[in-house]
Amino acid sequence: MIYSIVSITYIVILIGIIIYKSRTVKSEEDFMVAGRGVPVYLLVGTLVCTWIGSGSLFGTAGLSFRSGFSELWFSAGAWIGIIAIYFIAERVRKISKITLTDLLEQRYNRAARILGTVTIIVAYLVIAGYQFKGGGRFISILSEGAIDLQTGTFITCIIIIAFTALAGMISIVSIDIFNGTIMIVAMALTLPFAVAAHGGWGEVVQTIESKSPEYLSLFEGHDAVWVLGIILPTFLLLMSESSMYQKFASAKDSSSAKKAVVGMLVGVVIIEVLMCTIAVVGYAIYSNDPRFFMADGSINRAMSEEIILRIGFEQIPVVIGSLLFAAGTAIILSTGNTFLMVTSTNLSNDILKPYFFKSTTDSKKLIRIQQVSIVILGLVAFAMVTQFETVLEMAFISYTMIGASLAPVLIASFFWKRVTPAGGVASIMAGMTVPVINKLLEVSNVSFWLFPVDTDYIAIPSLIASLVMLIVVSLLTKPSPEEKWKPFFE
């Protein structure tokens, strides 16, 4: 009961903050980019919460349970991406666009913007969808099965839609400083208690060595292709993370945007290392629990993704467990809010306003248009959840689709003057097409040449196709004039 009380109380507190902040929304810019006045400490909190979502709490934790510390390669892809982003964050804020697709249009052309918008909407709805699914599992565990997964998923969907529609980016930035803090504190306290629950670190190591000694190594049991395959999705997504670019636009100045990236790196590394370690300890704790294993002895993937919450509910003191569940609430809500917000911003800013509401200048009406978009897109994301079995599978597909489509063209925008509009458009089309075709062939049980590729490796052919088209088409077409690329290099 106390787990439910703490989690519900935390949600009520966040609702109170959002309702209060919603009164400060006066313009479309307030709703989309928080009035461009976010200080460094708030920006750090919201950037950390952008990345740490259900994909981490469930997908990454499940991968750690199934592969041990080598999962850190999956997380390291994002860490490398954050370091790379540090060198362009200041320039992104100086350009002062609202969305990532605004940048695509300025550097390439209108077609690149539309293709980027379609890619973001489809991929980010998948990401928003697995926040709903993660919330469904969360509620099912919290209610001890009284609320089933499907019902819990729908409840989460409604809560996230309501949170996002109330005050937009102002609400997200306002609550994420609390969410980020509680995530770090909860994970840091959970780890020692989880270790103690199994008799200490020595017992943990002994159990793992007797069951799966490769879990204690970063390399054992995996080849270079596997490492590359799991690094690429997170690296590519981080580099093309539309919500991050939108939050850079929310910073009060370009220097704040750059400083916030350093804080983001520290926060993300701490939380993901703690999550991985907790999941590995969980493998030792539950190594003989039949719930986590199939009849043939293989690990139950769906169950493995619940490992952190299972530890919080079953293995550690109720006070620490309650704090962990509050952190779980924060993780699911903050990421779901962000991805619904970004998707609706791209839909309203890139499609609805230019083609259907071109003459509309009333700020209140424009905000209502985006709020309606949030509701519709949230329900579509809920419908998409049914097409995937695990959170990790959803993460790999969405990360690859958005990353392979947009990361190469974005990196080229800031580092390659020779890239052309035609090359950018061809690259986006190639990157978004490969994972979609692969998924369709997989569902249809049809094989074609090397496809379908295992989900763990789909990022490799997707990135190759995107890079080849970017480079070849750019070199075969006329270079862009200086005014196209100059703002990206100043």
CATH class: Mainly Alpha
Described by the principal axes of the CA atoms, the overall outline is globular
Overall number of strands: 0
- What is the percentage of strand-forming residues? under 5%
**In which range does the helix fraction lie?**
over 70%
- How would a crystallographer describe the biggest sheet? none
The low-pLDDT segments are none
The rounded distance between the terminal residues' Cα atoms is: 57 Å
Rounded radius of gyration (Å)? 22 Å
Number of helices: 21
- CATH architecture assignment: Up-down Bundle
Order of helices and strands: HHHHHHHHHHHHHHHHHHHHH
CATH domain topology: Sodium/glucose cotransporter
The total number of structural domains is 1
Q: What is the mean pLDDT?
A: 81
- Can you say what the CATH homologous superfamily is? Sodium/glucose cotransporter
Describe this structure in words.
The chain is an all-alpha fold. It is built from 21 helices and no strands. It has one domain: Sodium/glucose cotransporter (Up-down Bundle), CATH 1.20.1730.10. Helix 15 (307-314) packs antiparallel against helix 16.
Task: Reconstruct the topology from this structure.
Blueprint: H1 2-22, H2 28-33, H3 40-51, H4 54-67, H5 72-86, H6 89-95, H7 100-107, H8 110-142, H9 149-197, H10 201-211, H11 224-239, H12 242-248, H13 254-285, H14 301-304, H15 307-314, H16 318-355, H17 363-384, H18 391-415, H19 421-444, H20 459-476, H21 482-485
Helix pairs in contact: 1-9, 1-16, 3-9, 3-12, 3-13, 3-16, 4-8, 4-13, 4-18, 5-11, 5-13, 6-13, 7-8, 8-9, 8-16, 8-17, 8-18, 8-19, 9-13, 9-16, 9-17, 10-13, 11-18, 15-16, 16-17, 18-19, 18-20, 19-20
